[in-house]
Predict the structure.
Amino acid sequence: MTTTEIAPSLHPAGPLTEAREKMGRRFAYGFLILSIVPILIGYAWLIIATLSIRTEGLLPRNAEGGIGGFTLRNWDFITDSAIWNAMLNSLLIAVAMVIGVGVASTAGGYALSRMKFAGRKGFLSMTLVLHAFKAEMLLIAIFFVLRWLGDIPLIGDYIGFNSVGGVALVMIALELPLGIWLMKGFFDNLPWDMERAALIDGASRFRVWWQIMLPQVRPGLAALSLFTFIAGWNAYLVPFTFTVGTKVANMPVFLSQLISDTAPTNWNQVAAVGLFQMVPLIIFFIFTQELLLNIYAGGSKGT
Amino acid sequence: MRVELENLSKSWDGVVGADNITLDIADGELVAFLGPSGCGKTTTLLMVAGIYKPTGGTISFDGQIVNAVAPKDRGIGMVFQSYALYPHMTVFGNISYPLRLQKLEKDEIRQRVQQVVDMMGIGDLLDRKIAQLSGGQQQRVSLGRALVKEPQLLLFDEPLSNLDARLRLTMRGEIKRLQKDLGITSIYVTHDQIEAMTMADRIAVMSKGVLQAYDVPEALYDRPKTLFVAGFVGNPPMNFFDVEIVQADGDFRAKSGGIDLVIPSDRAEKAAAVKGKVVMGLRPEDVDLVDDTSPATEGLTLTGETTVVEPLGREDLVQVSIDGVEMRVLVDKTKGVRVGDNIELAVNTTKIQLFDPETEQSLLWA
Ligand SMILES: Nc1ncnc2c1ncn2[C@@H]1O[C@H](COP(=O)(O)OP(=O)(O)OP(=O)(O)O)[C@@H](O)[C@H]1O
Ligand SMILES: [Mg+2]
């Protein structure tokens, strides 16, 4: 949205309405600033904490209790390969989820929206019911499935228990009911005529899906990808349950491993790792801000 | 291309879309499917296109049964009411899409698209996105996309119903001219009978999935075979009266309440066999106001009181109450008819239609 056209108002703006508009804008900004302050303070505290030995409120304290005591020690983990490994695992899980959920949801959503086949109704209601199950309830069953997958020759090591692939598979499965229903909804709203026109123009059914229908649901797919990426990036329960040790840990699991029961926890270091985990997400948001606004503003812009 | 539909039917568990449709379309002919909403026009068209599978009957192109042929192999082009353009492509992208799927050379595609857009007068819009076009321009693009394939058969599904009245008039003439110039066999679905009457070589009138009549426009207008066709074709619609045909003094007369008309014997004879009432049809334009220039004749007039007068421009549409029975007639505006006037109407009884009230079939045209 680079330009905004405003319809000419019916009445020429007199000094009175102008003043009122100004007031309104001031009020809006004031409200926004007020509501954002607590969040900003939270982030400020987080950043200060990661750079100090210890903090008291927002104030960093040194060993003697005076103000000061800045240190970069909390960030030492940056040079540790374990965190980069965890980051990579997080990224792998998130990306695998975006791809897996994206492909399966658009294909499945299209089929459920547009094609007649036996068991279609049953499948639809079942996915809804499945979505109602929380992941926690399924953990034990999934564990057995993953163990079994791990026994498959050749690929078992990549998709079984204690593997990044296995975690991604489970996360994809848990995300699919929502994704399929979401995409089905988007396809339901597309006119049949466009599809018929493409069939008459000479496209195969697959090509209709790929070249004609998919571009129409792009905003929906973008939103789904975003939710999925965040869900994958922040995934904790599933990776924590189905991985052992640091090799296959993702960022949230790595973070939890810093909090030990036996040794005193360095909370400032935990804060630093937490901040570090957010960096990619923040960068991601900065770059996709405009796209996101468009999605939330109601889908495609038309042009 | 010759098109033949034989006993073509389509139903969805209980819902009938088209019921036993049989008709043939000659090479180069433009046939209109005309009927009220929900009568099965689109259903029939989509079966011809190959989008819907018939539940019964056959479709033949040039004597070849094509029931099992895929839409893309039927050599058809189709224009939809919603235009059904691809919004993520430019005008060029839309029109060239069928050719790109045929994997033609880039140069040939460009050349054929250019030819079509020049014909449609949209050559300067090639790089526009669809959302940046007006309804009329979108209509042209969609027609261009249908034509670029050089189809053997063109299918139109109410292509003009989303346009304003003036543009509809222009496009009507344009489509008709294009169709005749290119000599492409066409099926044109519409619920606008003026569109059907002016454009079509023959009109298939449908109702509730059934083909009611299939004939040239004049025949449907002058010699309607069923009550439905008589009532549906013509605007404003035909008036119907329940009358009894009686023979007196060698004349046939249609009588009922305030109606007492002498009917030409060639028409009345066919109805005399029916005992009791028949339905008499009279078009609003087949009457004249009785005044000094057109004097009254005994047995050829109706008198009544006007209840509504709607100016249509050149004429007034006047509603007359004839002894309690309402009738609509067209009267020259210069006659200055006003509500509450008692008027006398001279009836052109040679144009009268007669129907069997039971079978709703015409008694005049078997
Ligand atoms: N896919 C479908 N499934 C079930 N019933 C259908 C389907 N398509 C059409 N019908 C039914 O078949 C009948 C004919 O529909 P059709 O679309 O052919 O009407 P139409 O003559 O084109 O009407 P309109 O002028 O409103 O477009 C209607 O009763 C409709 O409800
Ligand atoms: Mg229709």
The longest strand of chain B covers residues 15-25. Residues 261 and 299 of chain B are 5 Å apart (CA to CA).
